[in-house]
Design goal:
four-stranded parallel sheet, binds threonylcarbamoyladenylate, Rossmann fold, binds magnesium ion, L-threonylcarbamoyladenylate synthase, transferase, single chain, DHBP synthase
Length: 342
């Protein structure tokens, strides 16, 4: 189909909500902004609609989708709350929902197996985006939505980026402007330990940081990176620009090949980081030119990766970011982008 972009009017979301809901209710798929990245939405209870999501993304069926609820009432429709973890799940939901935290829970029978790739669990979150939640409320059903990019590519943080990924494959993109978080939600799985504090396994680092989660249990960052279908969310070759992305232990390890064009993905253009004066870069892009803060870097990360990818470079060199707070999630995305080049 021809892909249409429809802008959200701040005062009057009704038109955008109405058009998105009409398509979703008819079993179609629509790209919708969330606070993290743009999602490709389908009625979570309609397996045929969900199948269209996998097709448009060219996503392998073994990689399950996140289900977005618009109210806590909907949580009970999609997930069970085992007694031993109900308390911590409710605390996490109370603290971070609506927001960028996804919780993996046992699924109910209502959720089609295609959504969860046959897993007995479902990944659930309530998005912090008002437009996304309004669409969910008006639809009256939970929404399955992965990031609105083709499989293995960079997640889109603007309607234009979705267009580049999925033009001609979906009927509608709701344009809600740039995403305010810029990287995908933190995914956790809870393990009860009886009398002890529960374990919170972080399956994907994201905007909700280890430091924030520690209040609710003992946090374990899952470092496992694999291409095994039984370990979803941990696929190695994610977030990949087409241009090779290189990272080094120390700046001096970079050995440019003569005649090749290199771009630098710098944190804030600071020569003290050791990269700015290392080479005559074709182009330098800064993750955090304004504030020098990690939140700005996260918001700009995928935008800058996309931009550099379009510059016809032979390779992109990325400065490492300090791994505290949001820096953990940013480095996770950079490493995966780098590793996928083999
Ligand atoms: O911020 C986000 O999470 C965005 C927005 C659209 O909500 N969504 C997103 O979806 O990033 P996606 O499909 O690109 O990534 C979801 C990840 C996948 O890597 C998938 O393997 C993992 O969540 N996942 C889904 N269900 C799971 C489950 N039952 N157990 C473990 N991991 C799961
Ligand atoms: Mg994704």
């Amino acid at each position: 189909p021809e892909t249409r972009i429809l802008s959200v009017d701040e005062e009057d979301m009704k038109t955008a909500v109405g058009e998105a809901v009409a398509l979703l209710a008819a079993g179609e798929i629509v790209a919708v902004p969330t606070e993290t990245v743009y999602g490709l939405a389908a009625d979570a209870f309609n397996a045929d609609a969900v199948a269209k999501v996998f097709a448009a993304k060219e996503r392998p069926a073994f990689d399950p989708l996140i289900v977005h609820i618009s109210s806590l009432k909907e949580l009970a429709e999609v997930a069970e709350l085992p007694e031993d973890i109900a308390g911590v799940v409710k605390s996490l939901a109370g603290a971070f929902w609506p927001g960028p935290l996804t919780i993996v829970l046992p699924k109910t029978d209502k959720v089609p197996d295609l959504v969860t790739s046959g897993l007995p669990t479902v990944a659930v979150r309530q998005s912090g985006s008002v437009i996304f939640r309004n669409i969910g409320k008006a639809l009256g059903r939970p929404i399955a939505a992965p990031s609105a990019n083709r499989f293995g590519r960079i997640s889109p943080t603007s309607a234009g980026a979705v267009m580049k990924e999925l033009d001609g494959r979906i009927p509608l993109i709701i344009d809600g402007g740039a995403c305010r978080e810029g990287i995908e939600s933190t995914i956790v799985k809870i393990e009860s330990r009886g009398e002890q504090r529960p374990l919170i396994h972080v399956l994907r680092a994201g905007p909700v940081t280890k430091e924030e989660l520690q209040k609710f249990g003992k946090v374990v960052i899952e470092k496992r990176v694999t291409d095994q279908p039984d370990a979803p969310g941990q696929l190695e070759s994610h977030y990949a620009p087409r241009t090779p992305l290189l990272m080094f232990e120390k700046p001096e390890d970079f050995r440019p090949e003569p005649g090749k064009k290199y771009g630098l993905l710098s944190y804030r253009g600071d020569p003290k980081a050791g990269y700015m004066d290392l080479h005559e870069w074709e182009v330098v892009e800064e993750l955090s030119p304004g504030s020098g803060k990690l939140i700005e870097a996260a918001v700009r990360l995928f935008y800058v990766m996309r931009f550099l990818d379009e510059q016809g470079l032979d390779a992109i060199v990325a400065e490492p970011v300090s791994e505290t707070g949001l820096g953990v999630a940013i480095m996770d995305r950079l490493r995966r982008a780098a590793v996928s080049q083999g």
